[in-house]
Amino acid sequence: AHEDSDETTSKKIAFDADAASLLVKNLRESFASGKTHSYEWRLSQLSALSKLFDDHEQQIVDALRNDLAKPPLESVAYEVAMLKNSCSVALKELKYWMTSEKVKTSLATFPSSAEIVSEPLGVVLVISAWNYPFLLSLDPVVGAIAAGNAVVLKPSEIAPASSSLLAKLLGDYMDNSSIRVVEGAVDETSALLQQKWDKIFYTGNGRVGRIVMAAAAKHLTPVVLELGGKSPVVVDSSINLKVAARRIIAGKWGCNNGQACISPDYIITTKDYAPKLVDALKTELEKFYGKNPLESNDLSRIVNSNHFARLTKLLDDNKVSGKIVYGGEKDESKLRISPTILLDVPQDSLIMSEEIFGPLLPILTVDKLEESFHVINAGSKPLAAYIFTTNKKLKEQFVMTISAGGLVVNDTTLHLAVHTLPFGGVGESGVGAYHGKFSFDTFSHKKAVLYRSFLGDAPVRYPPYTNTKQRL
Ligand code: NAD
Questions:
Q1: What share of the chain is helix, strand, coil (3-state, %, to 5)?
Q2: Active-site positions, per UniProt (predicted)?
Q3: What is the pLDDT of residues 130-155, one digit of tens each?
């Protein structure tokens, strides 16, 4: 089986629509055999995946170093440990998730009983992004396997060391008759997207999200789109400023140097409070990354020269010239950009018109903090939104009025680590959600089953529809 896997994943052999069609046909046959439905198969594959992380943590850390200069602690904590946790939650809960749910019936069907049976969807496609290449590839795969599907994973070509390690390790550890990796870029993904899938789970930007959804529509295939957006942080003055500053830094620069979908994109605070906030951020940043952050091993680099050029353009926009209050250093040869704060950025600047996805953090200022809610709701719905405050009323207002994929009060990004919370976007930030049981549900069909016996065969539903029956 591993040789087959090498054939389809090798970049030298073209992976075209015919190859994609053959791959799907083979997986459909495997799915139709019923093997992936069994509890034992699901358990064995989840256990194999979990073992893979135990056996190859160092290789994963090295691949992420190659692709992103990702600090080892971030790789272990946010990719390996999170995935191990997903596997262990799924292994622990699988029996319960698979158990059908008995539900009440109505008088109209008396006597009867009913249940909701979770059945696997079939053959599913997972397309993932480069910034957390292991987590974003394998966390959906955990859900797909737990729900009993056959799955094809297409990792991102922008993180090539991680992509090829994923292909190798899944080839070595998993049942390749039902779980496969296809490496490649636009051509290979397009060939995959021409096929009929039972679900497509895509992580990446909204432009490609639209391509995925359009391709899926041809086959009426349901999609999950895990997209991005501009995730705001509202900062009130009633806070422990030092802790807030550290938590903002951890979610921004401590998450792949801002190249994370739920990293704070911009801050909104009041004009009065902004200088204090900037000072606290500067102080903590210097403690974390030293006086020369371009040399810090605790910051990821920018993934490639295209993204470096994109971020440089955001900084060179003349609407933000003179607004840099911290950082702004770049080293193009090493693809490094230092943590950068911009104060009083105009809302019509380039940096405020697209998701930043990098180490630049603009701060907008308002007269009254309540205005920040209007600013946020005037834009596209973000994937995450954060507020730092101890003001109960403000907290409640934020939770009730801000529409975003997820919210965190007095921290950033950590909702991602709570497997009992659904993770996904709303509006432009995505369609559908996953994590924990939500992953299982995302890859399952909830089949409605009603049980009747031959008792109580009420004549009222049968013709002739007499006046007496009509009055009942
Ligand atoms: P990317 O460049 O790795 O692209 C994602 C996937 O789309 C890749 O597998 C790529 O091969 C494929 N692709 C690219 N162009 C394509 C095309 N024309 N047709 C078909 N497939 C194509 O990643 P990206 O888009 O740069 O990722 C960053 C974006 O993803 C940001 O917006 C970020 O917020 C979002 N993101 C969201 C999440 C989440 O969980 N919601 C996680 C990470 C990133």
A1: 50, 20, 35
A2: 226, 261
A3: 999 999 999 999 999 999 999 999 99
The Å distance, Cα 281 to ligand 1 centre, comes to 30
- Ligand 1: residue whose CA is nearest its atom 40: 226
How far is the CA of 171 from the CAs of 5, 159, 346, in angstroms? 6, 18, 50
Q: Which atom number of ligand 1 is nearest to the Cα of residue 228?
A: 34
The first and second tokens of residue 159, run together, are 């993180």
Predicted pLDDT at 5: 46
Q: What pTM did the predictor assign?
A: 0.96
- DSSP sequence for 250-307: HHHTTTGGG-STTS--EEEEETTTHHHHHHHHHHHHHHHH-S-GGG-TTSPPPSSHHH
Which residues, 6+ apart, have CB-to-CB distance to 69 below 8 Å?
297, 299, 300, 301
Q: Is the CB of 430 under 6 A from ligand 1?
A: yes
State the average pLDDT over residues 438-456. Answer: 96
The rounded radius of gyration (Å) of the Cα atoms in the chain is 25
DSSP 223: E
Burial bucket for residue 52 (CB in 10 Å: 0-12, 13-18, 19+): buried
Q: How far apart are CA 398 and CA 383, in angstroms?
A: 15
Percent of the chain at pLDDT exceeding 90: 94
Give the contacts of 367 (CB within 8 A, at least 6 positions apart): 270, 271
* Residues with catalytic function: 226, 261
Question: What is the residue whose two structure tokens read 């060179």?
Answer: 316
- pLDDT, one tens digit per residue, over 163-186 is 999 999 999 999 999 999 999 999
Instruction: Give the residue whose CA is nearest to atom 27 of ligand 1.
Output: 204
Task: Please give the Cα distance from 364 to 354 (Å, whole number).
Answer: 15
Measure the CA–CA gap between 28 and 32, rounded to whole angstroms.
6
**Residues 159, 416, 245, 263, CA torsion sign:** positive
Residue 2 predicted with pLDDT over 50 = no
CA distance 437 to 101: 14
- Hey, whose CA ends up nearest to atom 1 of ligand 1? 129
Report the complex ipTM.
0.98
